[in-house]
Amino acid sequence: MNWHIKKFNELTTDELYSILRERVNVFVVEQNCPYPEIDGKDSQSYHLFVREKGKIIAYTRLLPAGISYSQASIGRVLVIEEYRNTGLGKKIMKRSIDYLHQELKENEIKIQAQEYALQFYESFGFKPVSKVYLEDDIPHVDMVWTETSR
């Protein structure tokens, strides 16, 4: 497995195409949820991804504070179907938190978690800060991680 973290302008066209393809496959096709996947935030984000045999198998988008929220954010968290339940999701989330905290010096991270994954995110120290709400007809909960919740 090859791990990468890149700013938008550092991505190759092949990497960008693969990232967008996997995001659409998971969040639009697999979840049967038509929504504007390309939202204008990618160019201001960091892109953490794992490749194996030339294919992107896991991905997160890391947004510095002030882009989606006043806090930094992790979004578009995905592991492709054949690599789920292998521990890869935990590894990429840990690396995402570590990068935002250690490299970008962010002490607070906010996410929009799908309700079914609440316990997964709680295992990293994220705490719910909202009630369950529908976002694109999928139940979500806002959650925040702080340096002290580690």
UniProtKB/TrEMBL annotation:
<feature type="domain" description="N-acetyltransferase">
    <location>
        <begin position="6"/>
        <end position="148"/>
    </location>
</feature>
<keyword id="KW-0808">Transferase</keyword>
<dbReference type="InterPro" id="IPR000182">
    <property type="entry name" value="GNAT_dom"/>
</dbReference>
<dbReference type="InterPro" id="IPR039143">
    <property type="entry name" value="GNPNAT1-like"/>
</dbReference>
<dbReference type="InterPro" id="IPR016181">
    <property type="entry name" value="Acyl_CoA_acyltransferase"/>
</dbReference>
<protein>
    <submittedName>
        <fullName>GNAT family N-acetyltransferase</fullName>
    </submittedName>
</protein>
<dbReference type="GO" id="GO:0008080">
    <property type="term" value="F:N-acetyltransferase activity"/>
</dbReference>
<dbReference type="Pfam" id="PF13673">
    <property type="entry name" value="Acetyltransf_10"/>
</dbReference>
